Amino acid sequence: SDPTFVPIKTPDHCDRSSGTESDDSSIRSVRFSKLAEVRHMSESDATEALLARLSYQASVRAGEHARRQANKFSIQKIAKIALMFCLFWFMANYTYQISLEQTQTAIVTVLSSTSSLFTLLLAASFPSNGGDKFTLSKLATVVVSIFGLVLVGISDLTIENNNISTGIILALVSAFFYAAYIVFLKRKVDHEDKMDIPMFFGFVGIFNLTLLWPLFFILHYSHWEEFEWPNSHQWTFLIINGLIGTVLSEVLWLW
User: Fold this and answer.
1) pLDDT by 10s per residue, the chain, length 255
2) b/e map of 53-89 (b: 16 or more CB within 10 Å)?
3) Could you write out the DSSP letters of every residue in the chain?
4) CA 35 to CA 108: how far, in whole Å?
5) Does pTM surpass 0.85?
6) For residues 110 and 146, is the Cβ–Cβ distance under 8 A?
7) Which residues contact 139 (CB under 8 A, 6 or more apart)?
8) Inter-residue contact 201 to 93 (CB < 8 Å)
9) Nearest to 57 by CA among 67, 49, 65
10) Among residues 208, 8, 6, which one has the least CA distance to residue 89?
11) Domain extents for the chain?
């Protein structure tokens, strides 16, 4: 940086003789400048100087943290990604909630687990890295996971007259949108450290509220989903479900 000159502050000393000084007045005294030159170290030099004072392991961790911070997405880029995926998120959640209303919870739970199968197939079709390659071991793991959920909820599974209800179809649609949401988001964000997850979901909520409000009137006046103002008991469950069932679960899923 450009030099800055500041005055030097020194304590005043009394000009007293100790009795040992020479009386030779021809000896010249040394004069120092009353100004000090100050230069500010650049940020890069300051960072390197700080890392040089750390231990090896601490410097490695500090360097990795600095690289992650440098690679973080800007607010504008996070908002752009949220705009691209807000409809995926809305469709996945909306079809899931409607399927719960139209069919049994056990059936919806089992069918929602098929999102892992959709994720496996979509990731193999649209890979974001070499780890997304389709393998028989991955397929076996997914099948075992789905089979385990079937065993857990088999006592409650009853499909009358072997008819496939609308709720079952909606549950499968929800599972597909969840899988598409995860797979394509991973293609845009290769590492979770690059994106602020709470900010991402905040933008998703803002865009859904801004873009999808006309659906409120369409669903209400078409009598597909009539709006009724919730009572205090319903408000409590809506808030709990929104904070825990939606926000917390989504954040933990992506984190």
Assistant:
1) 677 777 877 665 545 554 555 555 556 667 777 788 777 777 777 777 777 888 888 878 877 877 777 778 888 999 999 999 999 989 998 899 888 888 888 788 888 888 888 888 898 888 888 777 888 888 888 888 888 777 766 665 555 544 457 888 888 899 999 999 989 988 888 777 788 888 888 899 899 989 988 888 888 888 877 888 888 888 898 888 888 877 777 777 666
2) eeeeeeeeeeeeeeeeeeeebeeeebbebbeebbbbb
3) ---EEEEPP---------S-S---TTSPPP---SEEEE-PPPHHHHHHHHHHHS-HHHHHHHHHHHHHHHTPPPHHHHHHHHHHHHHHHHHHHHHHHHHHHHS-HHHHHHHHTTHHHHHHHHHHHS-SSGGG---HHHHHHHHHHHHHHHHHHGGG---GGG---HHHHHHHHHHHHHHHHHHHHHHH-S-GGGS-HHHHHHHHHHHHHHHSTHHHHHHHHTTSS------HHHHHHHHHIIIIIIIIHHHHHH-
4) 79
5) no
6) yes
7) 120
8) no
9) 65
10) 208
11) 75-236
One-letter amino acid at 198 equals P
Which amino acid is residue 216, in one-letter code? F
